[in-house]
Amino acid sequence: MEIKDQQATPEQKAAIRKLHNEEARKLKISGYIIGAVACIVTSFLVRLKAFDFIGNYHGVLDNILFAAALSFGVLIISRVIQTQIAKGTLEKGLLYNLIQFTRLVTFIVIIFIFISFLNANWYTAAVSLGLISLLLGFALQTPIASLIGWFYIVMRGPFKVGDRIQVGGFNGDVVEINFLDTTLWEFSGNLMTSDLPSGRLIRFPNSLIFQNQVYNYSWQRYPLVWNEISFYITYKSDLDWVENIVRRTCLGQLDEKTKEHVQDMRDLISETPVDDIDIKEFPFVNFRIHENNWVEVVLIYIVDPKQSSQMRSNIVKAVIAELNANPEKVAFAPEGS
């Protein structure tokens, strides 16, 4: 599996900047060193019977102190690794994910250290860890599945921060991807009939991607989607003229970058086994017969998914203005028909 690039949110960028702060890094590592030394010194005092009031708990306290000292050592190593990762040249979103993964591994190692020191031997520790994992697996099925979902999102990259996606019944722009959940800024939904943001945030567990299809409207290789606009005219209209006017007007509203993606789409199709699709012109204009004996004109074009509502409005206004300016060429269906 290949690791995909991911843009970073302002919060994630701030977390990476903190790792670049030399003074804060030295202060934190110094705190870990002091903690480790304090644990080791206290352990020797325990062995010298300086804490007789604890009775028979000398051995337990000694193990806890050595586990704590070793844990501080692991935290120091983890902090150094995180700092080196933050200095990398990869995308900041990917750097943040690697830092989060390092922290997760650190947490697991520290738990294993304490379990090991509180048991008589490594075999008992392994059995204890297995039993604990089994119990936690039953009790925390959804969080564990969500954590695995986070690994899948990071490694396979079905979506990244900034993408417009649909997962199950949720539609939105991805604003944050955490260990256990993903946050979307909702578009459309039950408050809106257009593709504009509704203003609500949707937070769903990452495990949801294993149970539902994931629709990504912002694929990196082809970040556009197809839209269509339809309206009705009479049989007496000049259909060839209407087709030319609608296509020309639509092209006038689209920017050059969007037009260039038509060739990108041809290239993508040529790389797949789907070889029976031939895109000869753009945009498409199709005609259909309506059940009320009108001709339905369907304009099909590509657009940035986050600009679809505004682009649709611009095209409708421009097309109607052009057609109304030539009533001898086209006639619309009467109101109420």
UniProtKB/TrEMBL annotation:
Q: Which GO terms describe its cellular component?
A: membrane
What InterPro entries does its record include? LSM_dom_sf, MscS_archaea/bacteria_type, MscS_beta-dom_sf, MscS_channel_2nd
Please give one Gene Ontology molecular function term for this protein: mechanosensitive monoatomic ion channel activity
Transmembrane segment boundaries: 29-48, 60-81, 93-117, 129-154
Per UniProt, the keywords (alphabetical) are:
Membrane, Transmembrane, Transmembrane helix
Could you tell me which residue ranges the Mechanosensitive ion channel MscS domain spans?
143-218
Q: Does the keyword rRNA-binding apply?
A: no
Q: Principal localization?
A: membrane
Its localization reads: Membrane
What is this protein's name? Mechanosensitive ion channel
